[in-house]
Amino acid sequence: MFGHLSLLAALFFIGTLKDFRVAGLRLTEVRIPMYVIKGTAAQLECLYDLDGEALYSVKWYKDGNEFYRYVPRDMPPAQTFLLPGVNVDLHNSSDAIVTLRNVNLQSAGRFRCEVSGEAPSFQTVTEHGDMIVAYLPDEGSPKISGGRPRYQIGDYVRVNCTAGRSKPAVKLSWQVNGEPVEQQKLRKYDTIVSGRDGLETSVLGLQFRVEQKHFRKGNMKLKCIAELSTVYWRCNEESVEGDRPQKAPVLESRETVYASNSRADPVQASSTASAPSTPITPLVLLPVALAVMVMATLAQGITRDIDTDKISMDRTAPGGIGITKETQQARELLAGRKEENRRTSHGKSATQLEKIALTAR
Ligand SMILES: *[C@@H]1O[C@H](CO)[C@@H](O)[C@H](O)[C@H]1NC(C)=O
Ligand SMILES: *[C@@H]1O[C@H](CO)[C@@H](O)[C@H](O)[C@H]1NC(C)=O
């Protein structure tokens, strides 16, 4: 009985002792970038608080293999070990930061930093994070295809948005007049994998029936956005015109167009009838003049008819007047990428600190 109690007491003591020891050396921030663009440098940070102890070593591992070691007592303190895809820039590395040059697909993996204090305690703290190497889309902005320059109410918009080849696949989304599109209007397709590096092409379709509400001042804006976490953001927008906004549904509105044309004819005929009457004809030639007038009126009426037809056809013909197909190359947030990366890693390290706090308890 007493044996059990003393065992429990001993366990309790070891437990508190362990807590006390972990409270000494601790990691304050570990930043492993989640996405790094191929060909650029990556900075991995491992910040620690020695709490009065001396530093014995900082070691870095990728997928379990050590590639960098910093031991203040060694001369020089920093050394690196060869690993595929890991090219340490020693000049830009220290006890707290490791810089990897020119990252490639092999550089991706799980990175762990391990900080150890001096004898006699040799306490060690460790934390890890995963890094993905991204190939940005190779063809600039996403492409919009299958669109028409004009739509009428009741028509179907059926368009595709295709991103350039990348890794991982970019996330595509559609907006109509600046507003996100409901799920049921999206057509999802499998990404197309190609080439030796297995680069991926994303395609996202948009399909919906055009309604009056889709036109703002006679225009409808279809925008496709391509994103890759915080390292890439590009969009492409197409502006399409509606055929003269009409209150009536499409079939009726077509009829209205024809009806107004036929109504215009008599008006034109009557106005042209007055024109030939201006020249003063001698009374003797009145019957002849009348005959000429009738013929002229008819002839003019016909030409006017043809003219109005031509005009109205031009107005409705696809590819006619007023087509604005503007391709908007939108802002690329690559410039702000570092900032955002920083924010992400802050968030990450915050959770990591929580984790560390938990292990300490
Ligand atoms: C690496 O160090 C050089 C100077 O030694 C500096 O110009 C360069 O900006 C550094 N690169 C990084 C990624 O810190
Ligand atoms: C959109 O892309 C898919 C997959 O490539 C294809 O099957 C479909 O016909 C395309 N639609 C349009 C409107 O281009």
UniProtKB/TrEMBL annotation:
Residues 1-19 form the signal peptide. InterPro entries: Ig-like_dom, Ig-like_dom_sf, Ig-like_fold. Keywords: Signal. Residues 38-126 form the Ig-like domain. Residues 256-276, 336-361 are annotated as: Disordered. GO terms for biological process: heterophilic cell-cell adhesion via plasma membrane cell adhesion molecules; motor neuron axon guidance; synaptic target inhibition. This is Beaten path IIIc, isoform B. It comes from Drosophila melanogaster.
